[in-house]
Amino acid sequence: MGDIKEIAMPARAKYEKDLSEIFDRLVLMCRYIESAIEKSVKAFIERDFELVQEVFAEDKIVDKLERKIEKACLRLLVMQQPVASDFREVYAALKMITDLERIGDQARDIAEITTRTESEEYTGKLENIHQMAVIVIQMVKDGIQAYINRDLELARSIETTDDKVDELFNVIRNEIVAQVKKAPDGAEQAIMLLMVTKYLERIGDHAVNLGEWVEYAATGKAPKKETKKEKTKA
After folding, report:
1. Domain 2-233 is classified in which CATH homologous superfamily?
2. pTM
């Protein structure tokens, strides 16, 4: 029995070390994504094209981190052959980086919209768009922290927070429609505003997915068949 423990303990220690490295890269990926969302919205509001370029650069870093984490997770699954609970933990990380990468893409999409805006002042209200960005950034951060800390309560709270994002989306949409009715010439700008708002809503939906993968890792409960991100594609 002593020999078995001596063999098993190093293997477990190696697994914990590898998983810790995955955690560290997930946190780093999350930080770049938080920065990208914040910068993309600020770039749009202020028409800051230097920030746009920073978002583009950070998106490339996020893509590289996704590949590194994916490789590390697959190596862990193949080399360590984890038990069921460990398998769920690693598999959840694999699924989460897909959502994180898509969030990064949507931040980039917002930055790209900025490059197509005209020079005139925005006629619509931008405060709610900024507020949406603040909320979704926190949702993404909560998803990663919930995964690392095995915090189911925090993970489940993300969907409730997303209700605030949906409410803001509806408020902004109604404001845009009302503005276009008053000034039809501003329709093109209104479409840009609506697209930015829609991308932020999708980021919130992906953050909800993060919470569902945390619950899967902890309990084995499979995420909903029709995830929120799939609904947004319809």
Report:
1. Phosphate transport system protein phou homolog 2; domain 2 (1.20.58.220)
2. 0.87
